[in-house]
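Thought: the user wants the 3D structure for the chain below. I'll pass the sequence to the structure tool as-is, report back what it returns, then summarize two notable features.
Action: structure_tool
Action Input:
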Amino acid sequence: MRHVLHKTFALTALAAALGFAASAGAQAPAVKNLKMQSTWPASLTLQDNFRFFAERVDKLTSGQLKIEALAAGQIVPPFEILDATHKKVIDGGHGVAYYWVGKNKTATLFSATPAGPFGMDHFDFLGWMYEGGGMDMYWEFYRDILKLNVIAFPIGGVSPQAFGWFKRPIKSLADFKGMKCRQTGIVAEIYQRMGMQTVNMPGGEIVPSAQRGVIDCAEWVGGIEDLRLGLPQVWKYHYTPGMHENNSFIELIINGDVWKSFTPQQQEVVRAATLETFVRWGVKWQKQNADAIVEMRTKFGTQILRTPPEILIAFLKTWDVIAAEESAKNPFFKKVLDSQRDYASKVVPAKRFMYPPYSFAANYYFPEKPAAKAAAKAKAKAKGK
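Observation:
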């Protein structure tokens, strides 16, 4: 009898265990395989940002969310990823919001507001996004203003960006008037008012267009991105900085229904992974830019020069005029810009007060022209003799 009871108990326990396992298996979330596409050529570190994000999401969800991070053109043309995401041709995309200024100029305020905006750097601007109400307006913009079934997150800071590449020296505002240059977004309109002819094109078309003589100059990003795109092989003169994108964010966009299909935990993973990507990729990118500057000079003979202040001031003045014009006719543009101005009016003066100028210690440890200074000292000493 005891043997029968033991056997019965064992069979019951086994059945219960199998039933529990089957129930747990049935309740486990199904693996979601998502196709997302960027606006970038596969070779760029901007695409590395996208891939890093996809890898983190895969690991943080234990393989429940798998994102195929496709490069520009693999499903739709680069500038069509927003509409394709809305229509769920793709599940999401990776690009920059100012590509959509043709739909509404407010788009530039969520990616690369000229002048910072208002002098803000990456963390100031990220602060406006997460602490100053920016994210609510970001989602409102896509949902209510553009009427698109899309949500978005900032995923990287790709700036400050260089003024651009030119076939001849640019010493004044007059020097680039009439030149045909690759520019995008609202920046193209600003430079047009300053006298430049502009052409909008994806990054992958810049070098072929330059080789065919379609453009005389181009702005892309600067540093490693420009090196990988092959711009030092085309132009000799590279000017930095610019005021057009001294604080520029790239974005991750996701179809709204795809977002709603995520579990609450998966949504939190995406939020966390975008911020981790922003920081982790950003610090690597900074080092890559430093190495790229050396390679440009030593391997390609690039002349990296300072942008004349006259051009930077003219740019800011022109942007202020355009921003005022757009604010007068576009209430949502004004709402976002006023919010940015209010946030910047607090954090920018405070940071200026609390932080020493970057050049203070930089010039002490790494003088910009040590050879010239040494020559000047030697000359002065010779005169003293």
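Final Answer: Structure generated. Confidence is low (pLDDT under 50) at residues 2-18, 20-25. The domain at 31-159+248-287 is CATH 3.40.190.170 (D-Maltodextrin-Binding Protein; domain 2).
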